[in-house]
Design goal:
The protein has 9 helices and no strands. By secondary structure, it is mainly alpha-helical.
Length: 313
């Protein structure tokens, strides 16, 4: 065999090994970075069921599928190219974009709290008489995709910040991997949650006494679970949004909120012994949520009372 052809095969083998190593690096980096987004993923999973609560069961899966497609579009078409361009040419802007997204989450969460406390509602809700169900469904999907865009931006920015990959296409591949995995996990879980009552209803019609009892348990429990997830989603909005603001302001040189939150976290952790890990985390999360509530209430007041803005959820 000619030596030139042997050398070519050697070069191909080297390239193949390098490509395989790159794929391994991307998978490892994506897994490590994805784990850092857990808080935002929980927020996303908790918020989404609220967009189908109170609507026709027959429309639940189509709505979730529409939101899923919107989420993938957000992550892969809008955010991924922007994240790569920012990481290449303007990395300092990422923290400001994170804080803008955090402020939006604070606003959304605070507005929901104010509405529950008797404040004015902005936009049509499931408690109102719905004159045009199709238009209302589009409104709910648009609101979910809009909120998902912010949550997805946080996921992508956090992931990008955790990646240790020098080549831009490797960062892009890792971001895409995290984007698809998170989207499938979140909306797959949401679809299962919102259809559990239908599964329960099916089980109540079976001959088995155990199946009937378990089915009735699901039928009775799922509505309460959806309500609980709505509350958890609101709290998570404030916790995640406030946490982003606390961390972001520290990164840009304003340390007061960060010092207060972490000072309280360490103080509580030091005083709670075996519960120090959870107690410290809970303290930091609670302070972040308070920061988010205060900031969100200020933004809501300015938007609605000063500028007369009427939002739609």
């Amino acid at each position: 065999m000619p030596s030139g052809l042997v050398a070519l095969f050697d070069d191909v083998a080297v390239i193949a090994r390098a490509a395989a190593a790159s794929v391994d690096d991307i998978a490892v980096a994506a897994g490590r970075a994805g784990s850092k987004t857990a808080g935002v993923v929980i927020d996303d999973a908790a918020v989404t069921p609220s967009y189908v609560t109170g609507l026709s069961p027959a429309r639940e899966l189509p709505i979730i599928w529409a939101i899923t497609k919107g989420s993938l579009f957000n992550k892969l078409i809008i955010l991924l190219p922007g994240a790569i361009l920012l990481s290449e040419f303007l990395p300092g802007a990422i923290i400001w974009i994170l804080m803008l997204g955090g402020a939006f989450l604070c606003y959304e969460g605070a507005e929901k709290v104010m509405e529950k406390l008797g404040g004015a509602k902005h936009g049509q809700t499931v408690e109102d008489e719905i004159a045009d169900p199709a238009a209302f469904e589009k409104q709910r999907i648009a609101g979910a995709v809009r909120t998902d865009l912010i949550l997805s931006a946080e996921i992508m920015a956090i992931t990008l910040n955790e990646l240790d990959l020098a080549v831009w296409w490797e960062r892009a591949a890792a971001l895409a991997l995290v984007a698809v995995a998170v989207t499938v996990a979140v909306y797959g879980a949401v679809a299962i949650i919102v259809k559990m009552d239908d599964v329960g209803l099916h089980l109540t019609k079976q001959d088995s006494n155990f199946a009937q009892k378990f089915g009735q348990f699901l039928v009775n429990s799922v509505p309460k679970l959806l309500v609980a997830l709505t509350v958890i989603g609101t709290v998570a909005m404030l916790w995640v949004g406030g946490g982003i603001i606390v961390h972001g302001t520290h990164e840009v040189g304003f340390h007061l909120l960060y010092d207060i939150a972490h000072g309280a976290e360490y103080a509580v952790a030091g005083a709670t012994g075996a519960l120090s890990g959870f107690a410290g985390w809970f303290t930091y999360a609670a302070i972040s949520a308070v920061v988010g509530l205060v900031l969100g209430a200020v933004i809501a007041f300015v938007l609605h009372k000063v500028f007369g803005f009427e939002g739609a959820h």
